[in-house]
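Suppose you are handed a protein chain with no further information: no name, no annotation, nothing but its sequence. What can you learn? This example shows the usual starting point.
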Amino acid sequence: MGGPAGIRVIAMPVEAETFVDRFTALGTAEARESINVTARMSSIVMRIEFEEGQAVTPGQLLVELDTRETTANVALAEATLQQSRSQFQRGQALRETRAVSEADLEQLEAQMLIAEAQLDAARTRLDMLYVRAPFAGTIGLRNVSPGELVGPDTVITTLDDTSLIRLQFTVPEGFMATIAPGMTIRARSATWPGEEFRGRVTVIDPRVDPVTRTVRVIADIPNSDDRLRPGMFMTVQLERSRDGVMLVPEEALVPRGGRQFLFIVEDGRAVEREVELGLRAPGRVEIRRGLAAGELVVIEGVQRLRPGSPVELMAAG
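A reasonable first move is to predict its three-dimensional structure. Written in structure tokens, the prediction is:
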């Protein structure tokens, strides 16, 4: 008598192939430099020297605060220094006649140095009442008016340097070998459909996020035409080619208890094999571990199989 009839299944040999991983990274555009413009001292706004949306240069005056008291303090400090310097110079002349002791001369010199420091401090406080642009960029909306009291916590306006856009995005740790400083990226924005914006990777975070298993990447994109704005959502398409990749149809998988299994045909019987999955492609999945090239994998009829079941191979329809 013959053995039990085999379960009819369809199987396919698995061969290693070249596979191109594609990943769409999602990122946010940021300005090259971006600040909230504030005053360093509390005072009244006397003059506003900018227009909303205006391009400014480094050091350009944006706001003048009330300088009357501080200007008077500078004048007082200048007069004090002049007096101290004259006294010290007379002391030096009288030292030759021994009319002034060395101790008195040292005291006069110290007073002169103190007056110089006080003048420097007064001039610094005066300069702090002139709010200037620290770098070239574009002014944002104005939040204050002449006559208003402002302080270090008051946002007068914003300043952004958008001549270069820094696109920050994350990639899976598996793509770390693909990303390198200097490589070219192509980004897209829904604001400008059909257009690509080229840039170069400048920074790769040396740390992998232990929760998401991703790495932060920053790419610089030239923006001389000012079409890209901070806060815009952009996508980056990444690709990498790998050899020796084994792919099986998704219907060949047998999930159980959070693990994944395949049935391999060996000597006419079904052998269950636990496997480790990799990336997915449309309708197929990568097998990273547990499968060798050339093995026969059951792709239809897996629901009826048990380990050791006899099988009868059928031709694919």
